[in-house]
Amino acid sequence: MKLKFLLPLVGAVFCGPLMAQWQPVGNAEYTWGPFHVYTVGLYSENGHYQANERPLMFSVRYEKPIEGKNFAITLVKEMEAQKLSTDDTTAWLKKMQQIFPDFSPNDILNFIALEDRGYFVLNDTILDHEFDAKFTQAFIDIWLSPKSSFSKLQPQLTGKEKSGHDFQEFKLHPSSEPFDEESTMPELPPNYDQRNNLPG
C-alpha cells in the first residue's frame, strides 16, 4: 500500500480542501449490538448541510479495531443497494481494499467530497488514490440518501438532532491499542438483522 504524506508538493495539490475551515454539522454513533463501532461526523464550510452541497467532509472515528478490507466491503454493499453499476462497485471495492489499512481505535478516516472528485485521508496521511465524481456521490449517499441503511443516523449527522459526542473527539489521538486480529469484530452492514441470527 502506497501512502502520500502531507509534504509541500502534495499540499500544493490538495491545499484548498485540506486547509479549508471545516465547520461541524453533526455526528452520530454506529453501533452493532452493544458495541460502539465508530462515530461518523459531517463537516461543511459553513456548519450547515444542504443537498448537493460541496465540498463536504465525512470523518469516521473508530472505537473498535476493524479490518480495512471488511470496511471496504461494508461500504460497497451500501453502494450496491443504490443500484449502481456492478463494474463500478467491483472496481471501487478493489481500490479501497488496496488503500485501506487495518483501523485501530482512535484512528480517524476522512473522506473529502469535492465537485468532481473525492479522496480519503487517514489521520495525517492522504491515501494514494483519487476517486471520481460517481464514487464521491455514491459515498455521500451511503450516509445521506433517504434510501440509506443509515437513515436513523441522519438527523444527528445533519445536525437536526443533537448528538452525545463532542467534535473534539475527532481531533487526532494516538491509538493506545494496536490492531489485534484476534479481537477484530466482523464489520457487518447496518441493515444486518441480528434477531434472525441469534442462537435458539
UniProtKB/TrEMBL annotation:
Residues 159-174 have a biased composition (Basic and acidic residues). Pfam families: Chalcone_3. Residues 157-200 are annotated as: Disordered. Coiled coil: none annotated. Residues 35-157 form the Chalcone isomerase domain. Keywords: Signal. InterPro entries: Chalcone_isomerase. Residues 1-20 form the signal peptide. This is Chalcone isomerase domain-containing protein. It comes from Haemophilus pittmaniae.
